[in-house]
Structures are given as C-alpha cells and as structure tokens.
Amino acid sequence: MKDLIPEATVRRLSHYLRCIEMMEKCCYGENLQSKDLARMCSISDSVVRRDLSYFGTFGIKGVGYDLKRLKDSIKRILGLTEKKKVVVVGVGNIGRALIGYLSRVDGFEVVAAFDNDPQKIGKKIGKIKIEDAVNITPITANLNAEIAVVAVPSDEAQKVVNRLVKGRVKGILNFALVPLKVPDDVTVRYIELLTELEVLTYNIKKRRKS
User: First-to-last CA distance in the chain?
Assistant: First the structure.
C-alpha cells in the first residue's frame, strides 16, 4: 500500500462500500466491473481503478472484481472489520438523530451518550442511558471507545474534547463551529453544515450564469 493516500480517495472508498452494499441487496451477481461501480457512484471508471490501485490488485482483467472480496477489502482498509465504539456528547436534536442513525448502520456502535442538562441526564434514547458530561473521561475509558461525536455549543467544545482525550478517544467528529486543540495522535473531523449549504448556493448560482 502506498504511504500517501489522497483524502478524496479515502472518502470515495466509503462511497464505494455503500454502493457495493446496495448492489448486494439487489442481487447484482458475484463479479463487478469497474465501469458498473463507477456508474453506480456517478464517477469515472478511471477514478475507480486508480483509487483501488493504491491498495493493491483486486480485479482480474476481463472478469472484474469479486464483489464480496472487494467489499471485505474496503472494510479492512477503512478499519471496519469490527464494530467501532462511539460516544455522543450533546444530546440535542443533532445528537439524538445521530444516535438513531448509528443504531441502524453496520460498523459503528453507540455505547454512551453525555449531556450537562439535568433534565436529560438519566433518561434513555433507545438502550442508551444519558450520562452526566462530568463523567466523560472515566466512562469513555472504561468502555474503550475510540470515536466521539461532539454536538455541543462552541464555548463548551474544548472542555468536552479535553475530557474525551483523557478518556483515550482517538477520533472526534466535531459539529461545534470552533477549532479544537488535540494531541497529534487524535484526529478531528469538522462537520460544517453551513459551509456545505454555501457551497451549494455557489454552484447553483454558477450554473444559472452558464
């Protein structure tokens, strides 16, 4: 495997995995051509082949890819061979929606939820009991959760993240619109819905002019 993999390629691997899973449900067959995966994912055939080439040889010329083997290989590359434990901090509308969504997908398991609202602490969302946010560090460490979703107000985010880092979390999905300071061995991904909407409006405007 090459050392430097473009982030765009990693993002597309996740998209390929979703498409392959859809193909399986539709009884596509045992073998998959790159052009069919490209069509399903709305990208070019050459991009699919280039992306997969970063990680070795998967297909056979004239035959294509073994569907199950390719799916298993992508899951292994993405680190999804076993379920990843996730904690959610901030059980507002976004937090609740994410807990519900993650309960229906493979690869991830919400094992704890936290909030600082006394009216929420102790209540349950499905099987998940909402814990007091002051207990983030010991509970997260005890559960061996590697991933956290942070959906709290911006002025609370860094304090929450400090507790998560002490609890040995290694990946953080941040919905708070504020930069976070973390150690080098912790990865943060920022989810900025407003930015995505603004990119959409830019593209709409550009197409109207063309």
Answer: 42
